[in-house]
């Protein structure tokens, strides 16, 4: 437990050495159990949270020995909605597909965010923390809210640090990487074989703070490999292997090659989405993170995690047969 002192209702917490490298927002989430992430971001933006006496951003990486001032935060009164609903708790508990001493993986349902914030009180990580109140749980990576599939959570700091180094293609991991595969339905008939899309992606903000990603020469290098598994109803059921993990990468690359992800309301084809909704009952984006393959302990301990295609997406394929 990190030592702490109280100052005028606020408290100052010393960051323990094993939390070195943790983001400020995630550290605060561990200190302020049950507090929505949106409120955590608010108190950070307002300057109420201080690191070593100065203002800090939510994404700041902390170091062991840093002193974090945490203001008093109002928690919900009896009768107010404070924690995840029983339905959310049950959905996430039933979605656990793997667990060992270091990692926990769920097959995240579509419609549930990876974490709270931007008007969302409870994402998958907050729900897991509510299910496991005594455990230290940290997101290794994120999935779009409307994408289903594998979401990995670290139970130990050592696993978190090694996996995040793999995720960001850190040279210190000696050429190792994470194999990331998705299943998707793309509009129209993709050509046979593997189509590799090497197109840089740039994240911009639209009015209201909405993120919008586009292929742009000033963007970050991004590489995706699309291969057709089978064709259904004039569309292409594909596996996608990505070598980078950019925001909305598969969705934007799919649109870039003229075969947008079915059901994608942001980057997709509105007329195709409407027909698939009417003819096959597709009421969500057809994108599922199916497989993660990596190794921990400097490559000595291999992991192969799988999340089967959700039943509602399998039913869409059946109706298109």
TrEMBL record:
Q: Where is the RNA-binding S4 domain?
A: 22-80
PROSITE patterns hit by this protein: PSI_RLU, S4
Report the superkingdom from the record.
Bacteria
Tell me which UniProt keywords the record has, alphabetically: Isomerase, RNA-binding, rRNA processing
Keyword hit for Flavoprotein = no
Which residues lie within the region annotated Disordered?
A: 1-20
* Described purpose of this protein according to its UniProt entry: Responsible for synthesis of pseudouridine from uracil at positions 955, 2504 and 2580 in 23S ribosomal RNA.
Q: Which PANTHER family does this chain map to?
A: MITOCHONDRIAL RNA PSEUDOURIDINE SYNTHASE, RIBOSOMAL LARGE SUBUNIT PSEUDOURIDINE SYNTHASE C
Q: What is this protein called?
A: Pseudouridine synthase
Origin species, per record, is Marilutibacter chinensis
């Amino acid at each position: 437990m990190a030592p702490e002192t109280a100052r005028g209702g606020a408290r100052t917490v010393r960051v323990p050495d094993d939390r070195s490298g943790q983001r400020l927002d995630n550290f605060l989430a561990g200190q302020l159990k049950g507090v929505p992430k949106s409120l955590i971001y608010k108190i950070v933006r307002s300057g109420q949270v201080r690191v070593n006496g100065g203002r800090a951003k939510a994404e700041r990486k902390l170091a062991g020995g840093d002193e974090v001032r945490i203001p008093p935060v109002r928690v919900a009164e009896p009768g107010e909605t404070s924690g995840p609903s029983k339905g959310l708790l049950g959905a996430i508990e039933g979605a656990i597909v793997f667990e060992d001493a270091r990692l926990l993986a769920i097959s995240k349902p579509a419609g549930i965010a990876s974490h709270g914030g931007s008007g969302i009180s409870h994402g998958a990580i907050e729900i897991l923390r509510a299910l496991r109140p005594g455990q230290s749980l940290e997101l290794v990576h994120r999935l779009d809210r409307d994408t289903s599939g594998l979401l990995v959570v670290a139970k130990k700091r050592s696993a978190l640090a090694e996996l995040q180094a793999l995720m960001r293609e850190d040279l210190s991991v000696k050429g190792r990487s994470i194999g990331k595969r998705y299943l998707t339905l793309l509009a129209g008939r993709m050509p046979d074989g593997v189509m590799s899309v090497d197109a840089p992606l740039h994240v911009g903000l639209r009015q209201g703070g909405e993120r919008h990603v586009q292929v742009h020469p000033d963007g970050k290098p991004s590489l995706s490999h699309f291969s057709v598994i089978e064709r259904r109803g004039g569309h292409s059921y594909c596996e996608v292997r990505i070598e980078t993990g950019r925001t909305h990468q598969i969705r934007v690359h799919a649109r870039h090659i003229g075969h947008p992800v079915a059901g994608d309301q942001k980057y997709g084809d509105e007329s195709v989405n409407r027909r698939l909704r009417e003819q096959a009952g597709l009421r969500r984006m057809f994108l599922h993170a199916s497989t993660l393959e990596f190794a921990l302990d400097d490559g000595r301990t291999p992991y192969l995690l799988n999340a089967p295609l959700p039943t509602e997406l399998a039913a869409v394929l059946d109706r298109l047969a």
